[in-house]
Structures are given as structure tokens and as C-alpha cells.
Fold these 3 entries.
Entry 1:
Amino acid sequence: MFQSGALASDRALDADQIQPASLDLRLGAKAYRVRASFLPGPTNTVAAKLDRFKLHEIDLSAGAVLETGCVYIVPLLESLALPGDIAASANPKSSTGRLDIFTRVMTDHGQEFDKIAAGYTGPLYLEVSPRTFPIVVRTGSRLSQIRFRAGSAMLDGPALLDLHGRETLVASETPNITGGGIALSIDLKGSGEGGIIGYRGKHHTGVVDVDKRAAQDAADFWEPLPDRGHGELILDPDEFYILVSREAVHVPPDFAAEMTPFDPLVGEFRVHYAGFFDPGFGHSAAGGTGSRAVLEVRSHEVPFILEHGQIVGRLVYEKMQARPDALYGADLQSNYQAQGLKLSKHFR
């Protein structure tokens, strides 16, 4: 796509920017603090809306702090000139979600976040809103990723059942497969009473540099949640939790998967900002036997009690056009292969 001009960038690609089923998107030279989130709508460009709503401009070339509770719009280095038969969608990278950084991609004349219509030509922008920790970002920081689709690639219920029968997509004796998705449930028992079942983000912390690995002590940012033998957890409104699925997840090399939110009518909480699973996630040949889904959880307006085994999301699978040259895991030294409950790569 870069060779054909369907994708372009203001500077050379990073060596590891093209992932097995997605392209990492990089922040550009400036960020704009805005009064509130917005969509451009069918008659406006993002730049025109920025002229109305921006409060000030921030130079990212040497790095800058983005504060919690604020909304920023950042032009990205990558732009698109999609063919008429290729559409795209975006979502936060795994590490972005685990830091509780709310990100959404916007396009000119867009009426939805993170959805890019087939044939779109123009720039890309990222809305960034740190929710729990202030962050340091710079030109080239990668918070979001984009995927491209030709036609409909999603597996329906019968195809998913067939694939599970051949490949064991989730390690469960009685997988809940309905409507083309496999249900995932929450693990609130961990390794037994006294073990850690999750983490809750602390308030009033230092900053996290999104480009530095293992640079922060986890104890300065996270409160571990021990299992008290009840198999339940009360989610407090406006608190951020890192939890883990009860089931191990497997994405065969010829497929990709995405976590979709569970029906909000069954609970006032949101799970998993970064819901994309690359080909090879949890695949034994790629070093991922037993990879569980780490869940970023936030309650909405009211306290909510989560119980062990409660369904929190559904995994949908899509067919890849071809098997990637490198799989998630051993081929790429991926951060979250063979994971259990795990914080982002920024903490030690």
C-alpha cells in the first residue's frame, strides 16, 4: 500500500511499524488542546473544527506532557489514499489501553471515530485523552494502530464453531459461541486466596513516558488487588482496573481477532479499550500457549459488582488475506505473548 500510494508518511517507517495484521500510527509534530471531543461531520475537515475549538498548540518534537482529564487532537504522520474497495478501522495499541489512554482516530468529514470509509483520501488525526496517568509523548510515538479490509472477513457462527473445533480458540470445556462471537469471562480467583487478581490505578502519580520500557516502578502507579476468597470485585466509578480473562485465547496464524464490548444492558462497565489480537496470539508455535486476555475495565456512573466467571466481552474472528510473514510472539519478541495478568511494558 505504501508502494502504490494508498498509504503515505511524512517520514521513513520505523523498522517494526508494520505489524502482522496492522500498521502502527505515529504522532506528528504538534498536539492541540481542545475544549471538548468532537467529530468533524460530513461538511467539515478536522482542521476547520480545530480552528474553532483549540485552546493552545503544543510542540511534540522534543516531547511534551499530556495531562489527565484533557482532550488533545494530534495530526498523524501517516495519511491515506484508499482504493474504493478497501476500508480501514483503528484502535488503541495494547500498551495504550493498559495505561488508560483514551484514543480515537478521526478523518476529514468523518461521522464515526476509528472507522475509515473505503476510498478515503486525506490526513489522519488522533484524539488523545489520558484518563489515569499523565503521559509524555513526542513526534513518532505510537498509540494507535490501523487495519485494512477488503470485503467482509468476519466469521459467522457456523464458521467460528468449525474453526474452534479444529484449532481450540478458547480453553473452555463449554465455549459460549453465539452470533459469531466467543464469550470471554473474568477471572477473580487467580492462583488462590491471597493471590493477586488485578490492579487498580493510583491517583496523583508521576508521568509515564510512552516510549520507555520498564522505566517506572509499578508500586508507584498501581495498587494490587488480592483475592479475598469471595470471587467478586466492586468496581468504583471513575477508577481504572487491570484484570484478566478466565479463558486462554488462541488466534491461529491465518486469522485475527477483536474483543467487542458485551451488551451494556448486563452491566454498567466498559472492558478493553485495546481490543485487537494479532495472528499468532496464544499460538503454541509462536510461544503463546496459554495467553489470556488482559482486560482494561472501568465502571460507568454507579458502583458495579463483578463476579468470577461473569461474561465481559466477546471475541470475533476475521480471516486474513494471507498468512503474515511474522507472527505475534516469538517472531517479533512481542510484549504480551504467553501472558497472564500483566501490566503494560512501561512498568517493572
Entry 2:
Amino acid sequence: MKHLLGISGGKDSAALAIYMARNYPNLDIEYYTCDTGKELQETYDLIERLESVLGKRISRYDNYDHEQSTESNPFDHFLNAYGHYLPSATARWCTKKMKLEPFEKHVSDEPTISYVGIRGDENREGYISKRQNIQTIFPFRRNIWSGDVIDLVLSDNNRSKFLEVYMKYCASEEEVICVQVINEPISLTNTTRQKADRLLDFGVFRFNRVVHELLRETDYPIGRLDDFPLIANEDNLGIHDIYNILNDSGVGIPAYYLPIEFEVEHEGEIRKGQYSRSRSGCFFCFYQQKIEWVWLLEQHPKLFAEAMNYEKDGFTWSEEPLVDLCVPERVKQIKLDYIRKQESARNKFGTNWKDELLKQEGLSCPSCFI
């Protein structure tokens, strides 16, 4: 059984690596990263600090022949292969060629458990491989199981079997209500996820034991294990827990998440705001907000120029070409718009406005794999 944990360069995957090493030292986890060759230096610095704390090398996966390619990095290699067609939200060849394929190539046909750092305060699933030999687990969430597992074990077809196994672990005083919840048919207003949440309220460990027992009758990798230690895991970690793990370990928060103050003069008044990056990934990621492009322009001008140089033959990273975005008046307007966004969040959420804004920005797009 392979145990794999991918390091994207972001806060959540870094914290998960530390969390798993601390709490499950007996699991022989291989840590890896899929290097596109276009990461920020802060990402490479983070990986070095992680290797020091983990006492273990983080493997580098890629998906191209170094000797045959005319390019020195994966991104430029595949950009040439795609005829300079830049990746976008509707054509994410970058994720496919530089993240998913290297991962699945390394896994091959071996039964594998992949640990992914989706937090308990996030409402998304993350990457789930369609290959039967790869199973994804979410240790930061109360519900560690992926949606396909929940759909299977709580399907109407498996209701009687689930009930039979669940009753072996059910406390007598809860039998009536548990039976009622389990017997309610799946519908648009009672989805498998909603049913799972209600059963988890009766006991996380109990629910996990039932799921594991049912998986023993399937081809899921965890079903091959007599015991899986995360079954007893009842943690549900949010963003502040992630920051605490990183800071307590000495790895620290990736530098590009740290807010930087900026000022803009508007109608004779100095307006102040803060910007930072909301996610890891390539420095020219097309999911970046406009304020993040401004951050790149001002904090890493050489990288911004490199990103701008990729825009040619009608291909751009977003609907607004970088040559237009970097004009001083446009930069000023983007900053003013973002200050208004921050002020609106402050008025709406009060003292928690920074957390809420960070949460919105962090969840504004699909993950770049992990």
C-alpha cells in the first residue's frame, strides 16, 4: 500500500505534511511535489523548510523526457507541445500534464492512499482520481471520506447493509433516531452528504468504523487494510489551526500569503489597503485576481515581465492583457476597487472581515490539484 501526500507550495498541504508526520509517524508516507518550473521562489523555500522539519526528502515528480526536450522546465515543454496555447479555466492542460499525469504515472497500478489538505471550513472536494487503485482521504475534515465513498455506502441500494453494520456499534439510547436517519431515502433535500453529516453528529469514530467495514467488501485500497488509524481521527481543522501548525513547527506561513500594505491617492485623500497572494501555484496562474497580478507586478517585477512575454498571438492569461493591466492608471483603479472590497467586507463581517475575505479569495477557484 502506497501512502502519498502532495505538497503544492500552499499552506494547507504543508500543514498536512507536518500534521501527518506528528500524528501518524508509523505511516510510511511519501511526500512529493509536481514542479512546473514556474513556481515562486517562496514555494521552493517552503519545500526546503518542510524537508528539514520532516527529516525526509520531498520527491519531485514530472512528466517529460529531460534529455529529449528542448526546454529546461515542464511548463515550456508542454506549452510548445500545445502550440503556445496558454492554459485557462476552460483548458487546464497545465493541471493535467504537470500535476495529474505525473502523480498517476508514479502511482502506476499499486493500491494507493492519497492524503489531501482540504480543511474542515472549506466546502469543496478537491481532486479525486477516477482510478480504482487510488483512494483520497481528507484528514483535516470531520468527514475524512471522499464523495464517491459516501455515495456508495449511503446509497439506497446499500441501506439495509449499512443499517446492519451500524447497529453493531450504535448506543442503545440512540437506536431509534439512528434507524430513522439511515432509513430516510436519498433525495434532493436529503443527500448522501447531508445524511453523513447527521450520522457523524452521533459519533465520528462509529461512522468511520462502519464505512471501513463496508469498504472491506469493495476494491477500495482502504478496504484491503485490517486497520486504518485515521478511522479514529475526529479532528476538524480550520484556517487558524493551519496557521498554528505552520508557525509552531517553525516552517512558517508561505511568504506570499503575508499581507503587504499599499497606498493610493484618490481625490486628494490617501487610501490604504493590503494585498497578498491567495493561493500557491505558478506565478502566472490564470486564476489570479487582478489585485494579485498587481502584487506580482510590484513584488516580483521580473516575473510579471516574464508572464507578460508569454502573451502573444492573441493568447492572454485573462480577459485583460497584462500590457494593459500594468498601466499606472489601471493599477491605481484595481487597488481602489480592492480597497472598496476590503471596506465592504469590514462593514459586513466586522472583526472577522479578514478571515471571511481570505476564505472567499482562497475558495474562488478550483484547486490546482491539491
Entry 3:
Amino acid sequence: MQFSFHDRFFREPKGSYFLFGPRGTGKSTWLKQHHADALWIDLLQAIPFREYSARPERLQELIDAYPSQNTIVIDEIQRVPELLSVVHSVIEQKQNKKFVLTGSSARKLKRTGVDLLAGRAVIRTFHPFMAKEIAGDFQLEKALKLGMLPLVIGALDPQDTLNAYAATYLQEEVQAEGLVRNVGEFARFLEVIAFSHGEQINIVNIAKECSVDRKTVSSFVTILEDLLLSFQIPIFTKRAKRELSAHPKLYLVDAGVYRSLRPRGPLDKVEEIDGHALEGLVAQHLRAWIGYSGNSCDLFFWRTRHGVEVDFVVYGEKAFYAIEVKNSDKVFAQDLRPLKSFREDYPECIPYMLYRGRDRLSIDGILCIPCQEFLLQLDPAKTALFSP
């Protein structure tokens, strides 16, 4: 299956920018289509990596040799963060050069360089495919199984590619960069953390399951986020009228990555795994919609101390939505109770129930939308989350 770069919702900033995103989201493919004639430095290749690691100033020499070339792409900049000093110098000289600095890990840059550019390069994120980007090729069942990574969807054998994805990260990012002392411990952690996908993260329980201490688990969670393989969403606390839970929820970056990491056995219920995959699929779409739209809003969830929970809250200057996700083809009145409770506290919100059925329904003033329909209508170019 082939996908055109025209399908992506990403809009490029005018000036220099960092482009972050996990491996396989299509950053390099998109850039090669849009900047085919740019000066290109691929730090995943052995020779450029060795040359620029030894002499970062080589970048200045390359730029000076091509004075008419105004765009410079440095792929996987985190591998040689020392290059940021040269980039900063060129920008300061006002040579009218545009830098595109891609990265699939923010860890080294956090320690050694992003602040060095002092706001002279904005930060953007490339996400897995959104349903509308692939339109007629989007199938909910397939997305729940394989996810939405372009690397996986476009592969000759998508399942094999997905199965190798986590191993690739372990080998190329974690092990090669020496991010952890014990790769075996981190591999076990990846299996255990999959059980926390879509759940409030509990470091103590994860540490017990991994047989490592809490401090190590906390560092592993941070590494996972720095590698852009996971993200957390906080509790919505604005103008709170009830006692609320405090811990954030964790999601792996893609539903397919979750499925590939999640161990399965005779005691695991298919419905439970599918439910977490569906919730994660919605989470990654909402996150991409917020990122690509440029709307000043954020993603939250809501949970009271008594366990009443709304899966997602999208809140911002021009957006206030409460979204519940149900892995069922039917909706009953009791399924809407969390949304009704939230609406009691926040009558300004627009509540949606997403479910696996085929028909759009309105129950007690709450719009219930087939999940596939909702995802296919999700468009960053539109100011509304959903247009009935």
C-alpha cells in the first residue's frame, strides 16, 4: 500500500524548526518530498555520523561550500547534539538559512542542546497517520490490530514489521546510546508497561512486576517518553467541584505498538485488550489533531476519587469537549453517566460518546458517534472537533 506525502496534515513553519516524532512516522519521507534539493545530513548513516561526531565544524564548511543552498536538513540530530552549536552560530549570523532538525529521541537534546537555540527554532511533532489522511484505506479493525504507523502500514508484511518495531528501538536507541545499564530490565519493563496503556500509572506496582526499584522504573518511564514511544495526559482540574484523582494516564504512542508489546495468555480477555487499543487509538488521534491544528488547547482526562471517569477532555480557548470511548456496538443509558456527571459540573462542554456501532444516536442530549465515523471526520483544518 502506498501513501502520498499530500495526505499528511503537517504544516511546515516558515523558519527553522525541530521536527520530533518516533521512528516510522514518515518524517524523512515527507521532508524528502518537500525538500528534495536541500543539503541533507543523515546521521543514521555510519560515515556522516562518524565525520560530524569527530568534527562538528564540518557543517559550517559544508554550508560555505553551497552558498546558494538555503535549506539544510539534519536527520536524527540527537545523535550528534554538538552540531547545534554550529546551527546556532549560522542562525545568529543571519545568513538566511533554514534548518530542519529531525529527531526520534529528545533525551540527548534535553541534556545538551535544545535550549541552546534559545527559541530560534520552533518545535513541531510528526504523528502516526490520522484516519482522514488515508481516508478510504482506513479500517477501524485493521487500525486496532496494526496501528497507524506509516512504516508498518506501508510494509510488505505489516505484522512482522510491527513485531520488530520495539526490538529496533531497543537495539538502535536504548542499547546503542547506552540509555540504560541493563537492556534486559528495560525489555521486561516494556512488557509490563503495556498493561498500563490507558491506565493511571502506578510506579510501585510496575516496579514489583519488573523486579526493579521504583527509581529505576521512574527513569524507564522518562526514557520511554524521551524516545517518543509514550505520552501522559493529566487530570482535568479546572474549577473542580469534586475530589479528583491525582495520577496521570499513560498511553503508548500507537495502538499497534501497544498490541505488539502487550503479552497475551489464556487469562487475557480479547475485549479488554481491544478496549485499551480503541481508547489509545482515539488518544493518539486527539493528540495529533491538537498538534496539527495549532489550536491552543490540551488533552486531559477526568476521574473522581469515587472512580467516575471521562476518558478525554479537550480544553482550550475555543474548545471544550468531553469524550467517552466504549468498546461495544450498543450504548445504554448507564454508559452515559460519567458524561452526565461531567456535564453537571461543566455545562459549557460538548459531550460525545464514541462506540463501535454503525448508527449515530442522540441520547439525553449526548451525541453517540460510531468511532470510525468520528476518526474519519477528525480534521485539523477545522476548528470543530466533530461536525454533525
